[in-house]
Amino acid sequence: MRDTGPPAVEDFAGFLDRMSGLLGMMGRAIVEDHRFPVTGGELASQSFLGEGYECRLACLGGGARPFWAFVEKPWRHRICLGRLDKDGKVRISSHGLRQLHDFLAEIEILGRFFRDLERALTYLAKDRNPQDREGHPWHDGAFDPGGRLQ
Questions:
Q1: Total domains in the fold of the chain
Q2: What's the confidence (pLDDT) of residue 40?
């Protein structure tokens, strides 16, 4: 069954905007928590365990501190999405995000990923502002829109 998703899914600019927002949130969380190890390790990650797919976004420590997308299901694939500079700025690779967009479209999960991405952004925006959490439908933890920053 082909997953066409909403019309906005076909728009790469919308995908780029939302993914840039998520990677920016991850970068800010790393900088705010002063998580800059000298060597290796994972600085932050976001997991999406969707219907028929698994994808993890991670910022790895050491060196250029790259942001990677690791798609585990239905087919394994990894793509570099950018890096975190030593001054805390997130450098997005539009080419890497385009590759991820096209790969997800090719394996027909782009629509599901896009919806989960939007829900994760909404959830994480609430999570960064504790005063906004009360009364939020996801506050009780009964619904996980695809993972949390670690």
A1: 1
A2: 72
Residue 51, in any domain of the structure: yes
Instruction: Return the percentage of the chain with pLDDT > 90, whole number.
Output: 39
Q: Could you report the per-residue pLDDT of 46-103, keeping only the tens digit for each?
A: 999 988 899 999 998 877 889 999 999 988 999 999 999 888 889 999 899 999 999 9
Q: With contact defined as beta carbons under 8 Å apart, do 109 and 52 qualify?
A: yes
Residue 98 lies in a domain: yes
On the 0-12 / 13-18 / 19+ scale of CB atoms within 10 A, 124 is: buried
Joined together, the tokens standing for residue 78 give: 């990894």
- Report which residue type is found at 39: T
Cis previous bond, 74, omega within 30? yes
Residue 110 lies in a domain: yes
Return the exposure string of 37-74: e unless at least 16 CB atoms fall within 10 Å of the residue's CB, then b. Answer: eeeeeebbbbbbebeebebbbbbbbeeebbbbbebeee
Its domain, for residue 78, covers 11-126
